[in-house]
Amino acid sequence: MTPRRGATGLLGVLPVDKPAGMTSHDVVNVVRRVTGERRIGHAGTLDPMATGLLVVLVGPATRLAPYLTGAAKTYETLIAFGSETDTDDADGVVTRTAPVPAELAGEARASAVLTTLLGEQDQVPPAFSAVKVAGRTAYDVARRGGNLELTPRRIEVLEAELLGVQLREPLTLKVRFTVSKGTYIRALARDLGRSLGTAAHLVGLRRTRSGALTLADASSLSEVEACGPERIAQRFVDPVAALGLPALEVTAEIALRVANGAALEPRDIQADLDDGPLSLTRDSRLVAVYEKRGSRLSAAVVFPGSVTSS
User: Fold this and answer.
1) What b/e sequence results for 196-215 when a residue is b if at least 16 CB atoms lie within 10 Å of its CB, and e otherwise?
2) Catalytic residue IDs
3) Which of these, 12, 2, 8, lies nearest to 309 by C-alpha position?
4) For the whole model, what pTM was predicted?
5) Are residues 92 and 155 located together in one domain of the fold?
6) The domain that contains 257 carries what CATH number?
7) 150 in any annotated domain
8) Tens-binned pLDDT, residue by residue, of the chain (310 aa)
9) What range does the domain containing 285 cover?
10) Do 143 and 197 share a domain, yes or no?
11) Lower Cβ count inside 10 Å, N or C end of the chain?
């Protein structure tokens, strides 16, 4: 069989510490250039201004994106008060200014304010975002001076912890957020300012965690570039740990059936099954992700050759 064009045989999960000033797609292009592999994706976009953990997926591991993208994410942020921008961050043009409540300078009051953000809520995405309406992308319309009516999305703020207050102008809060999939931190900053009768925008953003992965698992982009295709797999992490799903070691016989995508019965794996996806391993290496459908387990993602880790 002729190898697929751009296929290298590489297959893995590569956490990268994205530098400021690059898009997530820029990072993907660097990994493509280093590996020669065309099938490169990522699990959760970071804006150019943002830094931190970007989970890059190499080769067939791109099929794990739905599971990794859906994980909760943690960010350390800086929110400046007194002005709002068209992008809801420091890269935009100021569209509105407003006085800042003096009590916000007190840590007790600032911490109390942040608790109002906790829980499930509907969030309107930023005007400059990748959200599409009727085939049109919001940021394309916004760049032309237009405005799409964006539908609020259900999100959840799991954590909003005050890390510090910077009193110099503009007053800035340093906050750690843990949020559900699809949450725009820029929009949280915008909405926080409005809820206090003032204005605010994001001036700093660093992702520190994505699901089970943290910055401690990440390689710098310069380290990735220094690897080359021969050594890049040394930077891959254990995909089973990265997924953070319940994991089950299967027998050699079951592994052969899994490699063909066969459905499994609970008795095949001798385990009681909860709802939700499950990682199947052989010799501690990921061979598939299965999902419970009715009383059976069905193949969602299968890796006959197993996913590479360092």
Assistant:
1) bebbbbbbbbbbbbbbbbeb
2) 47
3) 12
4) 0.90
5) yes
6) 2.30.130.10
7) yes
8) 334 445 678 889 999 999 999 999 999 999 999 999 999 999 989 999 999 999 999 999 999 999 999 999 999 999 999 999 999 999 999 999 999 999 999 999 999 999 999 999 999 988 877 777 777 777 677 777 777 778 899 999 999 999 999 998 999 999 999 999 999 999 999 999 999 999 999 999 999 999 999 999 999 999 999 998 889 999 999 999 999 999 989 999 988 999 999 998 877 776 666 678 999 999 999 999 999 887 788 999 998 765 555 5
9) 245-302
10) yes
11) N
